[in-house]
């Protein structure tokens, strides 16, 4: 990253993609933890677009059904899509703050149209590859990666007016340890690369990241990092709505971000699922902004 590179920040206080309240406060928690100041100290020009407005109707549509809050999620996704489109045209590095992981539908919709062959690193305990048919919960935050592949409800896959956004061979999932049956079938059928916790335990984070970086560097013209804080073990990042034990450590996650910084591969990023109500003294937001700093080139010496 050269000096005075521009970072464009967009907050998405979205909690409609799942049922636990509090994740809408994620963008505030990361700002409160010192995100903007930190990036400025790191030498970046920071343009903060503020938060997208979310209209939370008291009785959202599709409440107990297979796509909870569908209409609201569509509205927010379209808005995020056009904000990111604009940020990229103004040559900023898009940094999106969640909000639950359903925001990735809008962010990747806004980003992918600027690339011929966008790669995606999905750093997550989950695969988020469900559709309404396979979802055990009806929560849209468990579906965004499938939607970005063009699988799922038409109104979601068509955000931004085009579909699909990403090819299955350009996706790498890292840190997965909770995968539903339908997701497992899709991973096999589409040949999606997944470095589960097994591969990370067995080969180590360095080998996993090096392979991911080499692979994506050869075949993509931009890579979006979608970082779900629940990839990290809840010991280090307790403030998430769907925690799964046995996750990536704090150190391994920093290492992963440092290797990505060194590779200069990442062209946009989002940090999602930070839920300060479930957190312990804003620890998860603190961890998130430290990881942002590492991703954007901060070094210990
Ligand atoms: N972004 C997340 N935290 N996703 C969790 C998804 C959990 C589960 N697989 C579901 O579909 O409901
Ligand atoms: Mn997750
Ligand atoms: Mn996720």
Summarize the structure.
The protein has 301 residues and is of the alpha/beta class. It has helices at residues 26-32, 35-41, 70-89, 103-112, 144-148, 154-157, 181-190, 197-203, 205-219, 250-263, 283-295, and strands spanning 6-12, 45-51, 93-98, 118-123, 171-176, 193-196, 222-228, 266-272.
What this model shows, in words?
By secondary structure, the protein is of the alpha/beta class. It has one domain: 3-Layer(aba) Sandwich (Arginase, Chain A), CATH 3.40.800. Helices cover 37% and strands 17% of the residues. It has 11 helices and 8 strands. It has an 8-stranded parallel beta sheet with strand order 2-1-3-8-7-4-5-6, with helices on both faces. β5, α7 and β6 (193-196) form a beta-alpha-beta unit. Bound molecules: arginine (ARG) and manganese (II) ion (2 copies). Arginine (ARG) binds next to loops. Arginine binds next to loops. InterPro entries: Arginase, Ureohydrolase, Ureohydrolase_dom_sf, Ureohydrolase_Mn_BS. Keywords: Arginine metabolism, Hydrolase, Manganese, Metal-binding. Mn(2+) 2 binds at residues 124, 126. It catalyses: L-arginine + H2O = urea + L-ornithine.
């Amino acid at each position: 990253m050269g000096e005075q590179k521009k970072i464009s920040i967009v907050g998405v206080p979205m909690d409609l993609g799942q049922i636990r309240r509090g994740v809408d406060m994620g963008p505030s928690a990361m700002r409160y933890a010192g995100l903007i100041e930190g990036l400025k100290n790191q030498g970046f020009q920071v343009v903060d677009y503020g938060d997208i407005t979310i209209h939370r109707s008291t009785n959202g549509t599709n409440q107990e059904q297979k796509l909870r809050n569908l209409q609201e999620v569509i509205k927010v996704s379209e808005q995020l899509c056009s904000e990111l489109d604009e940020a990229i045209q103004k040559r900023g590095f898009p940094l999106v703050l969640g909000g639950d992981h359903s925001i990735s539908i809008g962010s990747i919709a806004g980003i992918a149209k600027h690339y011929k062959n966008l790669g995606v690193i999905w750093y997550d305990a989950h695969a988020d590859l469900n559709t309404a048919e396979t979802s055990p919960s009806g929560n849209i935050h468990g579906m965004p990666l499938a939607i970005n592949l063009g699988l799922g409800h038409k109104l979601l896959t068509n955000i931004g007016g085009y579909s699909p956004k990403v090819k299955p061979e350009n996706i790498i999932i890292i840190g997965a340890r909770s995968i539903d049956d339908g997701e497992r079938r899709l991973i096999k059928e589409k040949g999606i690369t997944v470095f589960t916790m097994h591969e990370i335990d067995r080969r180590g984070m360095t080998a996993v990241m090096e392979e991911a970086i080499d692979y994506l560097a050869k075949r993509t013209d931009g890579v979006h990092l979608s970082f779900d804080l629940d990839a990290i073990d809840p010991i280090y990042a307790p403030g998430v709505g769907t925690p799964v034990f046995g996750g990536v450590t704090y150190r391994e996650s920093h290492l992963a971000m440092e290797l990505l910084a060194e590779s200069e591969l990442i062209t946009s990023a989002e940090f999602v699922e930070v839920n300060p109500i479930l957190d312990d003294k804003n620890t998860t937001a603190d961890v998130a902004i430290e990881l942002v700093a590492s991703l954007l080139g901060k070094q210990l010496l």
